[in-house]
Give the backbone structure.
Amino acid sequence: MSATPSYNFAYLDEQTKRMIRRAILKAIAIPGYQVPFASREMPMPYGWGTGGVQVTAAIVGPTDVLKVIDQGADDTTNAVSIRAFFAKVANVKTTTHTGDATIIQTRHRIPEKQLQAGQTLVYQVPIPEPLRLLEPRETETRVMHALKEYGLMHVKLYEDIATHGRIATTYGYPVMVEDRYVMSPSPTPKFDNPKMHMSAALQLFGAGREMRIYAVPPFTKVVSLDFEDHPFEIQHFSEPCALCAATGVYLDEVILDDHGGHMFVCSDTDNCEDRRAAGHRGALSGEVLEAAE
Amino acid sequence: MYVAVKGGEAAIANAHALLADRRRGDRSVPALRTEQIIEQLGLAVDRCMAEGSLYDRELAALAILQSRGDLIEAIFLVRAYRTTLPRFGYSRPIDTADMLIERRISATFKDLPGGQLLGPTFDYTHRLLDPSIAQGNDVAEPLTAEADHDRAPRVTDMLGHQGLMEPDLGFNHVPQDEVGDLTREPLQYPLDRDLRLQALARGDEGFLLALGYSTQRGYARSHPFVGEIRIGEVEVELDIPELGFPVSLGRVRVTECQMVNQFKGSSKVPPQFTRGYGLVFGQSERKAMSMSLCDRALRARELGEDITAPAQDEEFVISHLDNVQSTGFVEHLKLPHYVDFQAELDMIRTMHAKHAAENSVQEAAE
Amino acid sequence: MDTNTLDGGFADPVMQSQTAFRAVMDSLANPGTVQALTLGLTPPSSLSPELAAIALTLCDHDTTLWLDRDLATDAVLGWLRFHTSAPITSERAQAQFALTRDPAVLLADFDQGTDLYPDRSTTVALAIQSVSGGKTLTLTGPGIEGSITIAPQGLPEDFLAQWAENGAQFPRGVDLLLVADGQLIGLPRTTRIKEA
């Protein structure tokens, strides 16, 4: 039998880390541009966040505090699994509190709590190319970025308006970074797009299967694409969180029965818990509901 | 009271425990050992090594056992281990003309120097289930002969000497200092043939089989003949600069397929035969043949042929042939997408409401 | 082999290169901020410990490295080869990383990247006299909230003109790391600089 497998700090070997680190530095220097990198096979499947995991593994150090969220929640199975992976291979301190984390790895959300200078948000990205579903060929889309030729994207958004009377893209809504590169924010709801603009945190994006890393440095202009007569707008929920009564946050719909009964609760579980700890109560939080049981 | 579902560590741990239980199965049945897999499921081990791109029978067998026989999962396990291995250097090219041959057939020449050797093939077996295998009956020792150490020249080289076959590395080959390695450098399309062959060698057998098949049915017809298939062991040698001579690292078993295809010629080159090349770890003719069909189809650009079929489309083929990538992205659809779905739900409801409002206005007007 | 060649590298390569990388990353993500880069390296004398730290953190046999003539002594080349395995190139335009302390350095001579692959440009690490005490410069651009000032000493005389030229070809262009006395300032190609 071959030698028993043993792994380096943060799983990746040093040569791989250097390769990823070099890509991260160039990504920061060219905001919104997708840097190709020689993504490695990771011990979790492609699609589970291998790009984000590689970025986190390349930057994480012993003094970091890591938070991992999936769909905004710390307790979804994949978030639990990735957090456990880093606790094991990097012995890193983990947290669910947004404010305590130095690195936050995320799938599909940006935390509600405003991020601070010194924090790094690492996005897991399935399809880094914002033009990919309009033009499947990398050889074509790369030229479009080089020429800043984004007519295809505007045509798509405009066709939406012609067909539906509105831009029908609700997540993964494309943004323009520093007036130069059109970038995919990853499949976050467009609700989160404004949080990317002039954020104090460093935002890094890792796409493992597609082998791309890109970045938005702190205090960088990130503008959602729109038209003068159809300005960009985010989702609004008609009711507050049923647990903490928050408004102006992104909510998950939870089905309560098979007669259409449903409720809305915070997607960001940490923010919701914080609010409840501070005494905020929603319509269906504990005390109110007990009588109904 | 509403309690949010906690995915949690407990659920994951329990799932892992259940998976381990199902993998082991009925405890009264003896546990499989990796030696049994290596010896008796050798072709599964070979596929795992080929697509895992790591030549290690023990690890491949362990992966097959651990994955409950799911070969793509086993390939993934091997890949995830391989990616962490340090790289000491690049071996010399293996010399398949110097192969210790176990099987060698040509469909283009009835007899040829070195002869035809049928070897361990299913080709002429009658596919009748054999109950004696289930009973573990003894198997007779096969007849063997001393290995013939004469070099068996490759059919394509014989054609090449007559000027009827393109040069070994193609018409427009520009010598490179180094061969590419897609596991170390991100791919940049269009690819050179070295990288394309590496991608094909690691590619999913089923995907390449279907694509190769499509070229036979008119999607990029290339008039293929099996010039030669050979299976056997070759020496792997590494140059050690300090020593000044190559050191043998051992032997690996490979399957090589050289497909001979028509080429109608161009303004610079007279009509002649061209090559499609396939090489895989272990014994897998199906994969090596499919690979050589795909390799030839993907040379359309280089040979100035029209690109009309999926098998000729480099970005399409190379981007989708890796089963670890494909299975990951297809299967990731089962991960939670509540947030994006909520966004879509909201949009559909808004559009529904608008539609209903418009219709009621219309009805009122009618 | 000279024992000096073997000595003076990272005592704990895994952790120290992580620390150094974060300093470089933070410097480029927050242009104008001064990051600490003290890792106890003792390279052969003409190579500063800061330049050494950048090379050991980011270079290996996959990256080409260029050094200016003064730096490229046998001792330094041997030391870098041993500690990084990086191929050393004498062509500026081939270099992925450049180490220099030459105040007459010309940024335009390095690899500027291409329109298709602007990431393939040289990262230039320039050792200067000090990251402070010089003429005040005002920086704006991504990574900077409003503006920030720096006052490095020992920049090329025509630095502002060179930097404006570098920025004008965005997305192409080099990225610059200024180092001195255990400190680092990062200047990505996006940073705009003018005299205060």
Observations:
- Confidence is low (pLDDT under 50) at residues 1-5 of chain B.
